[in-house]
Amino acid sequence: MSHISEDVVAPSSRLDWIAAALAVGIGLFVFYTSFFGSFETLIQRAVFVAMIVPLSVLLFPLGKGRVWRPLGAVIDIAISGFVIVAAGYIVMNFERIMNDLPFAEQIDIILGFGTLLIILEMARRSASLVFPLIVGGVVVYAFLGDKIPGSFGHRGFDAGYLAEVIFLSDRGLWGMLVSIASTTLAAFILFGALLLHTGAGQTFFDLSARAGGKSPGGAAKIATIASGLFGSISGSSVANIATTGNFTIPLMKSLRYPAPFAGAVEAVASTGGQLAPPIMGTAAFVMAELVGVNYWTIAAVAILPAFLFYLGVFTTVHLIAKRTGLGAVDQSELPDWREALNWRRMSPIIAGVAGLAFGIFNGNSIQLTACYGMVGIIGAYTVATLVSGGTIREVVLTLLRALEDGGRGVVIVGILLVAAQVFVAIVNLTGVGVAVTSSILALAEGNLIAIALIMAVVCLIAGMGLPTSAAYVLVAAVFAPVLIQQGLEPITVHLFVLYYAVLSVITPPVCVAVFVAATVAKTSWTGVASQSLRLGVTAYAIPMLMLIYPGLLLQGGGASIAMAVLAGVGFTLSVAAFFAGQPIFGRFTSLLWAVPAVLLLFPHWPATITGACLVAVFWVLSKRSADAAFIATPQQEA
Question: Where are the domains of the chain?
Answer without folding.
Answer: 14-169, 170-548, 555-628
